Amino acid sequence: MKTLKLFVLVVGLFIAGSTQAQVSISFNLGAPPQWAPVENYNAHYYYLPDVESYYDVDARMFIYLNGGNWVHRSALPLRYRNYDLYHGYKVVMSDYHGNQPYANFRDYKVKYGKGYHGQPQKSIGDRPGRSNRQSMERNNSGRRENIQRNDQRNDQKKSKKNKR
After folding, report:
1. How far is 17 from 91, CA to CA, in rounded Å?
2. Is 35 exposed, middle or buried (0-12, 13-18, 19+ CB in 10 A)?
3. For a disulfide at 45, which of 15, 29, 78, 101, Cβ 3.0-4.6 Å?
4. Are 46 and 57 in contact (CB under 8 A)?
5. Is residue 1 part of a domain?
6. Does residue 19 lie within any of the structural domains?
7. Could you report the average pLDDT of every consecutive run of 10 residues in the chain (164 residues)?
């Protein structure tokens, strides 16, 4: 009986050892948003100079002043509803490891004022609804606007001629 138990145990261990179970669990916690810059992928916070706000990557929350208090919200306030996160400059706070990035807000506000642009940044992903080609066209928007204005002028001239 002992040899039978020993035999079953050895066979069981052999089967368990030869079977390989692979379990893969993927969590996206702490992954930067698609509008985040490609460099410094492991940053915990970004400072957004144009809107004087922070973004907490792990919590997926914006941090901004509201009535004199710092608040954590899933979206920027309505006054910034047209702000383009994909093309606005992001200061990567790779050297900050606390829980209150706004502790040095005055320093950041002076060092990175509204309209600040450092080295060119490329976002991790494309802006929703835009392909890479459309993003490149946006970079040439001044040229495109001039072409559109010229087209409008030509259309106006044609309609005046047709009325005569």
Report:
1. 50
2. buried
3. 101
4. yes
5. no
6. no
7. 63 57 46 87 90 96 96 96 94 89 94 91 82 44 47 53 54
Whole-angstrom distance between the N-terminal and C-terminal Cα of the chain?
Answer: 113
Q: CA angle, corner 97, sides to 96 and 99, nearest 5?
A: 105
CA atoms of 85 and 72, how far apart (whole Å): 17
The one-character DSSP state at 147 is H
**3: burial class by Cβ within 10 Å (0-12, 13-18, 19+)?**
exposed
- Total domain count for the chain? 1
Q: Is residue 78 part of a domain?
A: yes
Q: Is residue 56 part of a domain?
A: yes
pLDDT of residue 14: 61
Distances (CA, A) of 90 to 37, 51, 114: 7, 10, 11
- Reference 86, options 131, 52, 42, 43; nearest CA is 131
Answer whether 63's CB lies under 8 Å from 102's CB.
yes
Q: How far is the C-alpha of 34 from the C-alpha of 105, rounded, in Å? A: 25
